[in-house]
Amino acid sequence: MASENMNKTKVSGKNNKHRVLVYALSTCAWCKMTKKYLHENNIEYEYVDVDLASDEDHEKIRQDIINRGSEPSFPTLIVDDKTVITGFRKDLIKEALEL
Amino acid sequence: MEKVRQRAEADAKTYGYYLNPNAEFLQDLLEGLKQNEERYGYPSCPCRIAIGKLELDRDIICPCDYRDPDVAEYGTCYCALYMRKDLYEGKASIVPIPERRPPEKQARAYTVTSEATVPATGEKASEAKATEQPAEVKKRLWYCRQCGYVVFREDPPYICPICKAKREMFAPIEISAKG
User: Is the ipTM here above 0.95?
Assistant: First the structure.
């Protein structure tokens, strides 16, 4: 997995049924909403604020998203290393996390 | 911070748009803009990744090139900072919209970053420095065939800021040396 050696921030939560990774921007309001939503639902997740990451990580993340057949925009959620959700799509997040 | 807010309010007013009515969401966006302005020297889009080179980020400086066509088509800009009256009044719901910025423009930003991290030596280093201004950005003059508005930039605007004509109304200006 491309994101293995990256500097990720972990947010703990009671619900750790799924592995959730969020590629976000520190400046983006939709990304904040996504993080808030996960937190409110007690979801355990990891995130990378891509705009604060190194150029190298930045390129790795872009490749990772493209390799998963998605467009590199933010936020991008990756659930269990397979489901990719672009943007704060509550309906899709709910479905993927069985909320 | 107030300056950022006032600038956005004034711009919304000029174009007949509204700012996002959700106070907290709006505050987050304005803070993102302020952050980017401090970081890069210009308020690039808080919802997109900037590269920090003006010429490459030119199209995503808020209000971005994509705002007008996005508000026209979806009712909000990519960030949902600017919106149309019906969405502002809650008559239609705000949903994330697709990215209109062409992938090649996004990719260009990344390519420059990765090239810049390659350690250059000797002659190549100075060469790299000399070409720091990316060669791919070719600016030219465009004029609006409807009102005569002229811009000097890579692409013509999606919508003429003066007469609201669509991009198709723009044509490049060819200048011949003979005069």
Answer: no
